[in-house]
Amino acid sequence: MAQSRQLVAIMFTDIEGYTALMQKDEKQAVHIRQKHREVFNMSTKECEGELIQYYGDGTLSVFKSSIAAVNCAIKMQQYFQQSPVIPVRIGIHLGDIIKTETDIIGDAVNVASRIESLAVAGSILVSGKINDDLRNQSEFETKYLDVFEFKNVNQTMPVFAIANEGVVVPNLSEINGKTEERIGKSFKSFKRKAAVLLFVLLAFIATLLITRQQTSNGHQLNELTIAVLPFNSVNLDNNSESFTDGVTDDIITHLSKIQHLQVISRASAMHYKGTEKSIQQIAKELDVNYILEGSVRVNDNQVRINANLVDAASNKNLWANNYDNTMVQIFKLQTDVSKDIANALKIRLSETEESRLNSLPTNNPEAYSVFKEGQMYLHRGGGKVEELKKAEQLFKRATEIDPNFCRAYVGLAETYLEYIFWGRESPKKMLEQASIPALKALAINSNDGGTFGALGAISYYKYQRETAILYLKKAIEINPSYVNAYDKLAWIYAFEGNLKLMEENFNKVIKLDPLSSKYIGDMGQHYYYLGEYQKAIDKMDESLKMFPNNNMLIWMKATNLTGLGKYHEAIELYTSRSVASNTNWMLGYSYGMIGEREKAQDILEYQLNKNKMVYVPPFMIATIYMGLGDVENALTWLEKDYEVGGQGLFFWGLKQDIRFKPLREEPRFQALLSKVN
């Protein structure tokens, strides 16, 4: 029998639910199969494909190229959507086959069949090889789904869905094909046990990215930047969703330990949760050259984490794989995976990097789960007291479960510092409380970036400039992508009037966290203290195009308008905000500056009464008195502010703050400046 070996694109099609339809309505089933074959024959002929065989309600065919096969599949699905709709699944793979006069054989045929079995009605699934051929063809859109282990196929394979208009893209939860079943069937209390498994993948990704720093002859590449997109949760419930977000967080944290790798922060990455934007569009917006995406599936005591690393410039998949196992081997797996991959890629991690990648935050899954929940509340931002209190309780609980859990102590310290940032509690009180867990964390692990970041922030709020800089630079040395450390350094240099160093550090902040309105607002405040009011306004205008209703950005633009003496414009902005539109302290100041004393006095009374019930930074009340021209009361409330620790983000800038320019010759004001400068 004559036979030949060929490289072809192999397509399987199948009518979903055909057997059941045949039992229910044989006449309708026959009619549908007939239409299926008519459409198939017509489309295959147009695309110069070759039918190998019909089998029941399915077909097997081959094409000379991936592009021809996918074009044919899209045409067929568009026809199948016309009445009567035919629910067809299509799978395509590129591979080597042996063709006889009546049949084709080869592993590639088996793979194509397995891919088709994963599809849902109306979808077209393709292998990584097909996707590679489509990469530079603008008429095709694809979406990465997952990495699968197929029955009787000795390797894992990434699978993609064609995402052109009119073609169905399945959710991972819908996929149920001919794969190796390695995940348990019951979904129970993963919350306390599953959290640790993500470390199986972390060290691997870190090791892989190290290799991108080197060419084959050892030369350094220019710059490595990566964004970790929020991983998808395959389990459709709230608990697994929060766990999956935790996986994303920790991959970002882990990758941030690698020198020469810039990692986009969590805040900016989370903007793309559930996005329909393409990889290349996201990479352009975040200015990165690599994107990591993936998914998490949790069942009982077993977890599967898969990841796909993409070179954004070429849209080429550099690597895709998955890991799943029971919790028993989790810590051994973490070490083994990183070392095995390093060995396979013939690279050697530095002793320091290997030590950091091998370091485990805790051996207690329950403590880790509680810690992740605390982080969830802390990361919500906005300074809501109830959320900060919840985070505080959870971090404390994590340290009770595991008294040697360094990162839980750091989380507790960071929570206390957030009370200060948002003006929710006395800085003096919070700094005393923050120092205890921060020093405890240092005693547990003297090589943790977060610990030094917290200590640096504490020193910053205490006006200990040299110590703060020392700690913050140490935090960056350990964790080169530590955004908050760069931010605090930028604040210090802004208060010194050093525009060059302020912008140098803040450009790093924006590079690592380009979509964080909090940090963009901080930049506006920096420019305010440097007297660069128009620069700040221009920056806020640019950012308000992305976040048109952001209260912080609106407030910061208005505040810089007051620096230019444009109080009426500032008032219009302050009153347009969705929060504190009639009671904000800077609104009170602005009313005072234009002579609207009654309105200013109303806001002052509101803040004074509020201060009897909850903490209000005295600095804010002092500012309203300045608007009213009441120097004595302004000085009194500034002195009160220093007594409670000083509102760090404002108080340290008194020397440059234009609002307090009339006080610069006052002896009481000079005495305050001597304490903080």
TrEMBL record:
Residue ranges of domain Guanylate cyclase in the record: 9-116
Presence of keyword Nucleus: no
Gene3D superfamilies named in the record: Nucleotide cyclase, Tetratricopeptide repeat domain, TolB, N-terminal domain
UniProt-listed Pfam families: Guanylate_cyc, TPR_8
Keyword Metal-binding tagged: no
Stretches that traverse the bilayer: 194-211
SUPFAM superfamilies in the cross-refs: Nucleotide cyclase (SSF55073), TolB, N-terminal domain (SSF52964), TPR-like (SSF48452)
Keyword annotations from UniProtKB, A to Z: Membrane, TPR repeat, Transmembrane, Transmembrane helix
One of the GO BP terms on file: intracellular signal transduction
GO molecular function, one term: adenylate cyclase activity
TPR repeat start and end residues: 483-516, 517-550
Listed name of the protein: Tetratricopeptide repeat protein
The organism of origin for this protein: Aestuariibaculum marinum
